[in-house]
Amino acid sequence: MMRSILIATALALSTAAVAAKDRATFITGQYATAAQCEKLRKIEAGGPKNVGTAPELLDADGFHNWEGGCEFTKIFEHDPGKQWVALMVCSEGMSVTPETYVFSKNEGEDSFDVSDSDDDEPDTFTRCDAKDGKKGN
Question: Helix/strand/coil (H, E, C) string of the chain?
C-alpha cells in the first residue's frame, strides 16, 4: 500500500513539473543578439559548432546555448502587447537557478530588449532565422 502511495505521489509531482513549463507565445521564430546571430549564420554556412562558436538563441521555449539555457516557467503580460515578465529556470552545467527576465517589444521592429536583475543595460534580441542570411521565416 505504501509503495502505491509513493508511486502515485511521484507521478503527480512529475506531471506537475512538466505542466509548470510555459511558452512565450509573443515570441515567434528565433531571436539573438547581432553577435550571436552572426555565429548562427557561420554554423549554417558549414562552420564548426562547438562551445566557442555555438550561439545563444531565444525562442518561445526559452534561451538555448551550448552549455545550458533557460526555460520559461511562468510569463506575465505586464503591458499588453509590449512588455512581459518571465520567471525562468536556468541551467549551466550542473548549476540550476531561478531567474526573472523582462522582455520589452521594440515598437515597429522585430526585436525585444531583454534584461534581468544582473543587467545594467538590456540586450537587444532581433529576429534571427539565419538560413540564407534572411530575417524572418
Answer: CHHHHHHHHHHHHHHHHHHCCCCCCCCCCCEECHHHHHHHHHHHCCCCCCCCCCCCEEECCEEEECCEEEEEEEEEEEECCCEEEEEEEEEECCEEEEEEEEEEECCCCCEEEEEECCCCCCEEEEECCCHHHCCCC
